[in-house]
Each structure stands twice: as C-alpha cells, then as structure tokens.
Amino acid sequence: MGAANFVTRWNCGTWPEWIAYLSQFADGLIAGSYALISTVLLVWLVRNRAHLNLTHRLISGLFGAFIMLCGLTHVCKISAWYWPQYYLFVGIDFACALASVPTAVLLLMPSVRELALPKRSSNVWSEVVDTLAHDARSKAERNAALEARCEQLQHEVTQGRAVEAVEALIQEMLSRTRIEPKL
Fold first, then answer.
1. Is the same domain home to 113 and 129?
2. Do residues 86 and 6 make contact, with C-beta atoms less than 8 angstroms apart?
3. pLDDT confidence of residue 9
C-alpha cells in the first residue's frame, strides 16, 4: 500500500480554486513563520548556551524542535495538494506530537519553570520595577512643585499683584526653555 493508493487533495472533492490557493498561501505563510521562529530560537540558543543551565537548554531545544515540526506539518498540507505521501505526512505529525508533549509537560512543571529562568532575569525585573518607581516619584514631585507654584500665583493674584504674577510666570517659563549657546 504505497502512495499510489492515495489521491492528491485536488482530486478529493470539488475545491473552488480560490479556496485551494488561499489554503496553500496561508499554510506557506505559517510554515515560513515557524521556520523563522525556530531558526531565531536555535541561533539564540547557540549564542547563549554558556549562560544557560541544562534545563533551560533542554526546554529551548524541545520548543525549537516543536516549532520547526509544526512548520513542517504545514509544508505537508501544501504538498498534499500535489504529492499524496500521507505515510510521510503522518510520520511528521507523529514526530511533532512527540516533541510537543514533553515540551508542554516541562513548561507546566513549576520546579522546572523556576530552574529554567536565567539568574540575571530577576535583576532585569528589579531594574524595571525600580525605574518605574523612580519615574512615578519624579512625576509626583513635579506635580507637587507645580501645585505649590499655582497656589503661590493664586495668592499673589488675590493680593492684587496679578500683573506681577503673570510677568514672573512668563519669565520663569522663558528661563526654563532658554537654550544657552555652547562655546
């Protein structure tokens, strides 16, 4: 029972051409994207292998293989329109399943997930949190200074010094926006 017992997808039902070509185009885009993702992941893994522990390398490698095999299944879907090698296609589907199950299991295990994170990632997150907290404090300080200045100007206006208050505000704004020439 070889490939001669199977028919191409073109000969399996009545397909409007636009649906057949749209299906092939979509599968081509998906396969290309999966190929790019798995290639980038492989290059990243090779470049960073010295900084990664064994568990992280294992998960990254399994994930890359899974993504590559997913892309290959879409290549098979395109091929089925012209070349009915379904035994090969089922083998690729099975290989994809064999790569996906341990990847999913490893990613779901909390102990492995903790081990897989590079040590420097905690520093990155603390730097992000520190930066956001500093920005929030700076904004709060600027808002407080602005509110104090507004209250001062309101007081001057109520004391009958509105013209002087506006002139002082204009001078202050001009001094903050003045660009000094560099010599």
1. no
2. yes
3. 81
